[in-house]
Design a protein that fits this description.
342 residues, 26 strands, single chain, 2% helix, globular, Neuraminidase
């Protein structure tokens, strides 16, 4: 598609009292936006992306629906050999179900795995319940039908495979009208699976403030790191770390509120995070990436974005950070692919 002519905004950094991530961000060369392209806008509302490199090709997934919430969302899969020319290779759907937030991983036997939230609504908007779905593919075109995993009320948001096992954090909140809904008793727990279908709980995560969307990654020393979105109290995201067997966790506020949080661990052990940054009017929401450590996340690069935006996929490939995200700054919510030099 046509390259969007967009402008780059710089993120301001605080100099005093820097965490290691902030100090690294302040002293290292700032990330540079190399390219950004709109790659899909065919749906009425295109959002919540992920990105993976598989069998020498790029795959990008996202949800298509009538709007941000409600309706019967579908999971679209795009593919490209060069990151420039994209084709739709699959559209996953389930009658009466809103398939949300599709996320890729690659199984130990070299299949693409796609997990999705599965929400049910009354009248198109009132949430009645939900349960995660999973689908598998050997080529990104032919997928198994979405099948239910975990329990009703769960939302397994992203999975990372580590030493032959899939790890993720599922969050649970009562449906409207159910016991506990008024008190917003949200909870998160770490789960694991050997086959991507049957998950078992490993640890309840003691995160207050209505925790929800969580990305799980692993360091070279085997420690598990999570970045958790929070919706109450100060709303700051939390960073958690635990050694195996991932029962004892240490927590630290990330220093800012993050929507749709994602991060990856680079070959040198450093971490790059991204998500929605919340700013006062008139700036509003923007999508950012920046350095992350076990104490904080430091925004460094603000992408051309605005309004309904964020939910990035992040892949390091051949000396560049490849980033998928969605944004509505040009009108309708659309899917973008960017490359960044770190």
């Amino acid at each position: 598609m046509k390259t969007s002519r967009l402008f780059l905004h710089s993120a301001a950094l605080m100099v005093a009292g820097l965490t290691p991530a902030a100090a690294q961000a302040a002293t290292a060369a700032a990330p540079q936006l190399v390219s950004v392209n709109k790659i899909w806008d065919a749906g009425q509302h295109n959002a919540f992306t992920d990105l993976v490199r598989f069998e020498g090709r790029w795959f990008c997934t996202f949800r298509e629906s009538e709007g941000h919430v409600g309706g019967d969302g579908k999971a679209r899969v795009l593919s490209s050999h060069d990151g420039q020319q994209w084709e739709s290779t699959a559209l996953l759907a389930e009658a009466g179900i809103d398939l949300r937030d599709p996320k890729f991983s690659v199984t130990p036997d070299n299949r693409l795995m796609l997990i999705m939230g599965g929400s049910v609504y009354q009248g198109g908007k009132t949430l009645l319940g939900r349960q995660p779905r999973v689908a598998f593919s050997k080529d990104g075109r032919n997928w198994t039908p979405p099948e239910r995993i975990l329990d009703k009320g769960d939302w397994l948001w992203r999975v990372t495979w580590h030493q032959g096992r899939a790890y993720g954090v599922t969050y649970t909140l009562p449906a409207p009208g159910q016991p506990g809904a008024a008190q917003s008793e949200w909870s998160v727990k770490l789960v694991a699976s050997d086959d991507g279908r049957n998950f078992r709980p490993l640890a309840e995560l003691a995160v207050p403030g209505r925790p929800n969307e969580t990305t799980v990654r692993f360091l070279k020393n085997g420690e598990c790191v999570v970045l958790v979105r929070r919706e109450a109290a100060d709303k700051m995201a939390w960073i958690g770390v635990s050694p195996a067997p991932y029962k004892e966790w240490k927590w630290q506020p990330a220093g800012l509120q993050i929507g749709g949080p994602n991060f990856i661990v680079l070959a040198d052990g450093s971490m790059i995070a991204g998500g929605r940054q919340y700013n006062p009017a008139p700036t509003g929401a923007r999508f950012f990436i920046g350095r992350m450590d076990l104490q904080s996340v430091t925004p460094q690069l603000i992408f051309p974005s605005g309004g309904d935006c964020s939910y990035p996929g992040l892949v390091w490939h051949e000396g560049l950070l490849w980033v998928s995200y969605y944004s509505s700054h040009e009108g309708k919510s659309s899917i973008y692919l960017a490359t960044v030099k770190l």
